């Protein structure tokens, strides 16, 4: 049977979503000092409450040492590392769930990428003490005790997400953050139980999965959703952190813990392939998943036709990133047979409907777009770049 975008999808533990469209986790550049949701954060998420059947809130760091992963002067990354953040995440859950979609919270530890922490004069922790040429600050190798505490922090963050009303959590093992750093040969040069062989480099990701599962089993509703996001390879020219074949070995172990979905973070599109391969990343990962573990793929979807192609040929659910940044009603329009009315590019008129945060506007309209992938027709709103939004001191420290 061919997948349709408007199919109801049932996850392993009983949760259902009303279509195959996913709002992926995307930084909103909107946090208040300390990592709390701002009014702009909540407005952004309320506007996207019908973007898809499954809505994943941006990454929240689980340990005080885990972030923020935004540079000085930028509205902070959001946190979930203590109970003071409970009302913040509860408000995000309510904003996303107001029209009946499922809300997921992405949880992570930044590891070496906690540049905002460095800017505050605090030491930055990583799997190994490596002098990275692209960082302006040193990193310290985590002790075994710190590693164990961070694993527990993932469990504590999961409990807060449950209590706040989220329908699930996504473990963030992608995009060069802490979990990926442990899996990578480049960033993990340890010789203890947390590094060395492939099996030992898997130890931290799997320990996090086990802890999240433990907390969910004890405190969550039966249909609580657990997902795991992974970058399917880490290759930078001659430097190889891991190949897609090694990533497949990790995910084979991850899915033994009966997660609901695996989420592939793809920069070059949902149909992208490993270099030299004749099959897509989605094909390789789909092949190893059992029938109850869904595959989510993100990358390069701006239209109903592209989303349809993705779910018909590559994946169970398609995450639409920039497409929902441009048109927050992406999924809503498809549900109602109005896919032809989806807006594919930004404009001054569409910006009013898109409810971007001031920080997001600043990021996309600044030179270099802060390293973000381009938004179609962004030149039409670049004149709205005022230099800095209120409370925003610029991107001069970005790399």
From TrEMBL:
<protein>
    <submittedName>
        <fullName>NADH-dependent flavin oxidoreductase</fullName>
    </submittedName>
</protein>
<dbReference type="InterPro" id="IPR051799">
    <property type="entry name" value="NADH_flavin_oxidoreductase"/>
</dbReference>
<keyword id="KW-0285">Flavoprotein</keyword>
<feature type="domain" description="NADH:flavin oxidoreductase/NADH oxidase N-terminal">
    <location>
        <begin position="16"/>
        <end position="337"/>
    </location>
</feature>
<dbReference type="InterPro" id="IPR001155">
    <property type="entry name" value="OxRdtase_FMN_N"/>
</dbReference>
<dbReference type="GO" id="GO:0016491">
    <property type="term" value="F:oxidoreductase activity"/>
</dbReference>
<dbReference type="Pfam" id="PF00724">
    <property type="entry name" value="Oxidored_FMN"/>
</dbReference>
<dbReference type="InterPro" id="IPR013785">
    <property type="entry name" value="Aldolase_TIM"/>
</dbReference>
<dbReference type="GO" id="GO:0010181">
    <property type="term" value="F:FMN binding"/>
</dbReference>
<keyword id="KW-0560">Oxidoreductase</keyword>
């Amino acid at each position: 049977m061919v997948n349709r975008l408007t199919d109801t999808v049932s996850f392993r533990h009983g949760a259902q979503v009303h279509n195959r469209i996913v709002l992926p986790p995307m930084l909103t550049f909107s946090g208040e000092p300390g990592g709390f949701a701002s009014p702009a954060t909540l407005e952004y998420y309320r506007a996207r409450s019908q973007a898809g059947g499954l809505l994943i809130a941006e990454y929240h760091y689980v340990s005080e040492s885990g972030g923020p992963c935004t540079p000085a002067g930028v509205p902070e990354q959001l946190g979930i590392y203590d109970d003071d953040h409970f009302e913040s995440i509860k408000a995000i859950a309510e904003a996303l769930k107001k029209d009946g979609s499922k809300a997921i919270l992405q949880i992570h530890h930044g590891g070496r990428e906690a540049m905002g922490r460095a800017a505050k004069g605090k030491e930055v922790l990583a799997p190994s003490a490596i002098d990275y040429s692209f960082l302006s600050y040193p990193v310290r190798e985590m002790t075994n005790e710190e590693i164990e505490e961070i694993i527990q922090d993932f469990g504590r963050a999961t409990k807060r997400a449950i209590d706040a009303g989220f329908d699930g959590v996504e473990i963030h093992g992608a995009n060069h953050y802490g979990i990926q750093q442990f899996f990578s040969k480049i960033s993990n040069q340890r010789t203890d139980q947390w590094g060395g062989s492939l099996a030992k480099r898997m130890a931290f990701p799997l320990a996090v999965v086990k802890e999240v599962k433990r907390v969910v089993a004890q405190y969550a509703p039966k249909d609580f959703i657990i997902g795991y996001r992974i970058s399917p390879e880490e290759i930078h020219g001659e430097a190889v952190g891991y190949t897609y074949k090694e990533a497949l070995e990790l995910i084979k172990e991850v899915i033994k813990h009966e997660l609901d979905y695996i989420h592939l973070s793809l920069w070059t599109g949902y149909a992208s392939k490993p270099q030299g391969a004749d099959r897509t990343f989605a094909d390789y990962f789909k092949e190893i998943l059992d029938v109850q573990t869904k595959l989510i793929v993100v990358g390069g979807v701006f239209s109903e036709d592209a989303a349809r192609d993705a779910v018909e040929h590559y994946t169970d659910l398609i995450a639409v990133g920039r497409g929902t940044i441009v048109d927050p009603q992406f999924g809503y329009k498809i549900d109602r047979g109005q896919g032809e009315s989806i807006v594919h590019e930004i404009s001054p008129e569409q910006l009013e409907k898109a409810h971007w945060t001031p920080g997001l506007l600043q990021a996309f309209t600044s030179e270099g777009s802060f390293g973000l992938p381009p938004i179609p027709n962004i030149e039409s709103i670049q004149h709205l770049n005022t230099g800095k939004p209120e409370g925003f001191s610029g991107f001069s420290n970005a790399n």
